[in-house]
Design brief:
CATH topology: Tetracycline Repressor, domain 2
Number of helices: 10
Strand content: under 5%
CATH architecture: Orthogonal Bundle
Organism: Streptomyces olindensis
Oligomer: single chain
Order of helices and strands: HHHHHHHHHH
Pfam family, one: TetR_N
Protein name: TetR-like C-terminal domain-containing protein
Radius of gyration: 19 Å
Keywords: DNA-binding, Transcription, Transcription regulation
CATH class: Mainly Alpha
InterPro entries: Homeodomain-like_sf (IPR009057), HTH-type_TetR-like_transc_reg (IPR050109), HTH_TetR (IPR001647), MT1864/Rv1816-like_C (IPR025996), Tet_transcr_reg_TetR-rel_C_sf (IPR036271)
Length: 195
């Protein structure tokens, strides 16, 4: 019987908070049970496994992150949209390190197809990039470039790895300028005929 007051939503939200406090990789069912003052078994009526818990945290965090990005890019296009998207991404990653780490895990492909969060993320990201006139396969390539650029920058910044005296925000702004120029001048993939 589920413990009174515990719900799947409350368990997942607590796991996300704990991830921000101690790191996503350190979140376990046992750590979460200690947080609630219950035995591990009490949580298994709300989540099936540690993997299920982590996936749910990833989806929760992904939803929070894309909500922030969507609000930032609303009514913007081109460079303004790219800069707003990037700032919202970076802000979330730095403010919620555990949640952000959860968004980087590989999620079961069956869940990807059914997830409104992941569909909305794709729609907003691809929508922002379509303003640059990109179509497949260039859209996917551009998404991968932006994600790796943003993620790499945030990962280095969060560990204090930028040691040069140059202001980190100034470097970020220049990186966004450079990405904008690259997207405007994207090398389109040429298609060859099999004939």
């Amino acid at each position: 019987m589920p413990r009174a007051g515990l719900t799947a939503e409350r368990v997942v939200a607590a796991a996300a908070d704990l991830a921000d406090e101690i790191g996503f990789e350190k979140v376990t069912v046992s750590a979460l049970a200690r947080h609630f003052g219950v035995k591990d078994a009490s949580l298994y009526s709300h989540v099936r496994s540690l993997q299920d818990l982590r996936t749910r945290v990833a989806l929760l965090a992904g939803g929070e992150m894309i909500d922030r990005i969507a609000a930032a890019v609303a009514g913007r296009s081109g460079k303004d949209s790219l800069a707003a998207f990037a700032a919202a991404y970076r802000g979330y990653a730095l403010e919620h390190p555990g949640r952000y780490a959860a968004t980087q895990i590989q999620v079961d492909q069956a869940l990807v197809a059914d997830s409104p969060v992941l569909r909305r993320t794709a729609e907003i990201t691809y929508g922002m990039l379509r303003a640059y006139g990109l179509e497949e396969p260039d859209l996917t390539d551009a998404v991968r470039l932006l994600r790796s650029s943003f993620h790499g920058y945030c990962a280095l910044e969060s560990t204090g790895a930028f040691g040069a005296p140059r202001d980190v925000q100034a470097s970020w702004d220049r990186a966004i300028d450079a990405l904008h120029v690259l997207l405007q001048n994207w090398p389109r993939e040429t298609r060859t005929s099999d004939a």
